[in-house]
Amino acid sequence: MAIEELTINPFPELSELMEDLPEELPETPEQKERFRVKDKEQAEWCLRQISRLLSKREEVKSLAQAEIEKITAWKNDQTESIQKSISFFEYLLIEYHQQIFKENPKAKTIKLPSGKLEARKAQPEYQRDKETMLPWVEQNRPEYIVVKKDIDWSGLKKVLKFQNGTGIDPDTGEVVPGLTVIDRGTVFRVKTL
């Protein structure tokens, strides 16, 4: 009895549909030729589509930014509360360590199972007035003077002439070494109003 139950098709409707399928699937029709702009009206239509899509993109960005700001405000509120608690516990531990250190100046580190408390001498802060220091350093320690050299490219570019992938000094006709000019062709852009 159990064998008979297993040989019965549980989806008879599916079998009927399978019988109706053709032996071979028909060949797919050739792909349509893609759209190409052929006149100014079609070009204008394309520009309107770009404007519409740019507007939609800005709408999406604006919505996303509003959500980001909302989540950021929530995150800041939550972490501020947590940070206050952390600061409170750090204060308690520092206060405790200061008391131990006062009693025993060698107790710079206190090791505990969940971490350690450390006391280290802080580095001094150096407040420097460069204008006052510079003349003294130039006279007494010139090896610590740093001279920075760089090229005024925007100015030099205005003076040079460019030809055959090189820069040429118009006064001397000399080719500038270390300069190669790479022609990048014509750049096409689409601008919408």
Quickly list its features.
193 residues; mainly alpha; two-stranded antiparallel sheet; 4 strands; 50% helix; disordered N terminus
Oligomeric state: single chain
Structural class: mainly alpha
> How much β-strand is present in the residues?
5-15%
How confident overall, as mean pLDDT? Answer: 86
**Biggest sheet, open or closed, and with what strands and sense?**
2 strands, antiparallel
Give the radius of gyration.
39 Å
Count of β-strands: 4
Report how far the terminal alpha carbons are from each other. Answer: 78 Å
Within the largest sheet, what's the order of strands? 1-2
What level of helicity do the residues show?
Answer: 40-55%
Order of helices and strands: HHHEEHHEE
User: What is the overall number of helices?
Assistant: 5
List the uncertain runs.
1-5
Shape: flat
Structure in words:
The strands form 2 sheets. Strands 1-2 form a two-stranded antiparallel sheet. The chain has a two-stranded antiparallel ribbon with strand order 3-4. The model is unreliable at 1-5 (pLDDT under 50). It is 50% helix and 7% strand. The longest helix has 64 residues, at 40-103. The chain has a domain at 40-118. Strand 1 (109-112) and strand 2 form a beta hairpin. The protein contains 5 helices and 4 strands. By secondary structure, it is mostly helical. The protein is flat and about 90 Å long.
Structure summary:
The chain has 193 residues and is mainly α. It has helices spanning 2-7, 12-20, 40-103, 130-140, 153-159; strands at residues 109-112, 115-118, 161-163, 166-168. The chain has a domain at 40-118.
